[in-house]
Amino acid sequence: MTSKPTVAILGPGGIGGLLAALLSRAGHRVVCLAREGTAEVLRRDGIQVRSGQFGDFGAAVEADTELREPVDVCLITVKHTTLDAALTRVPPAVLGDALVVPLLNGVEHPASLRTRYVPELVAPATIRVESTRVQGGDGEGVVIEHGSPFTEVDLAGAATVRPRLDALASALTGAGVTARVVDDETAALWAKMAFLAPFALLTTRYGVPIGEVRTRCRAELEALVAETAEVARACGAPADPAGSLARYDLFPAAAKSSMQRDAEAGRALELDAIGGALLRAAERHAVAVPVAARLVKELGGAGA
């Protein structure tokens, strides 16, 4: 991988659009893969970013409905609810030996992706950011609102692709993202899950931002953090419930989870990928998670 890798981004939404714009601004060739209406707007108008951390700027990107040539890396930034359909835009034969880097919520997707692409080239990543696409597609420009004062990415993968992961981390860092390569994929995925699940389930269930959750629902938040930490440990990952609570307290009070935003917009929820996966892992390891189970059921995921 060169110092300026060519990057395909499947799903130029809040996360994918932000990373696409940052990488393009840093001089990388970026190809966004999306449905035709969005691809047309991207080719014509590029991406506009509004960010306290990075400033307000526009970035030109290439765009298509599917990948038609090899690239160095493909970032997968769609929602779980649209993953299967979206993957048809990235034919394995065209992808070649590119890194496949999913930045998806949950913990179960790497195994699924490894049945479609070269297993050792699938390098899961986690991202900590609040970023939303507020306009986009079918005649409207693509506008990304980046609300968090941080954008942090952890990359994990097979030892054989470590130099390529280091190069990708360097590219992301050069674009302004705090990026690092970590050794333990399970630990990375569960560190994100242990933070995300309480955040997503509680903000969505009660329809309030994190500031109200951490005050009005403090006992429930603490119980849910403890449950997810216990499941993470059972899955072989370290857990830091006190650290998670401290991070919630540092979050901007108005921050909302992506699941909450989906609920507000009437979109399908990633409930199975987050809450369902948590319950399945808890069942496998015989960990009691009564608060999580109740919230998933109340959100419509009974039997998830």
Automatic annotation (TrEMBL):
- Give TM segment ranges: none
Keyword annotations for this protein, in alphabetical order, are:
NADP, Oxidoreductase, Pantothenate biosynthesis
Q: Ketopantoate reductase N-terminal domain spans which residues?
A: 7-135
Entry keyword annotation includes Oxidoreductase? yes
The record places domain Ketopantoate reductase C-terminal at: 187-298
Superkingdom = Bacteria
Q: Name one GO molecular function term.
A: 2-dehydropantoate 2-reductase activity
Catalytic activity from the UniProt record: (R)-pantoate + NADP(+) = 2-dehydropantoate + NADPH + H(+)
SUPFAM superfamilies attached to this UniProt entry: 6-phosphogluconate dehydrogenase C-terminal domain-like, NAD(P)-binding Rossmann-fold domains
User: What InterPro entries does UniProt report for this protein, alphabetically?
Assistant: 6-PGluconate_DH-like_C_sf, 6PGD_dom2, ApbA, KPA_reductase, KPR-Related, KPR_N, NAD(P)-bd_dom_sf
**In which pathway is this protein known to take part?**
Cofactor biosynthesis; (R)-pantothenate biosynthesis; (R)-pantoate from 3-methyl-2-oxobutanoate: step 2/2
Q: Does the keyword Oxidoreductase apply?
A: yes
**Sorted alphabetically, which Pfam families does this protein's record hold?**
ApbA, ApbA_C
Tell me which GO cellular component terms the UniProt record holds: cytoplasm
Task: Provide one Gene Ontology biological process annotation.
Answer: pantothenate biosynthetic process
- According to its UniProt record, the EC number is 1.1.1.169
Provide the family line: Belongs to the ketopantoate reductase family.
Q: What does this protein do?
A: Catalyzes the NADPH-dependent reduction of ketopantoate into pantoic acid.
- The protein in question is named 2-dehydropantoate 2-reductase
Q: Which organism is it from?
A: Streptomyces seoulensis
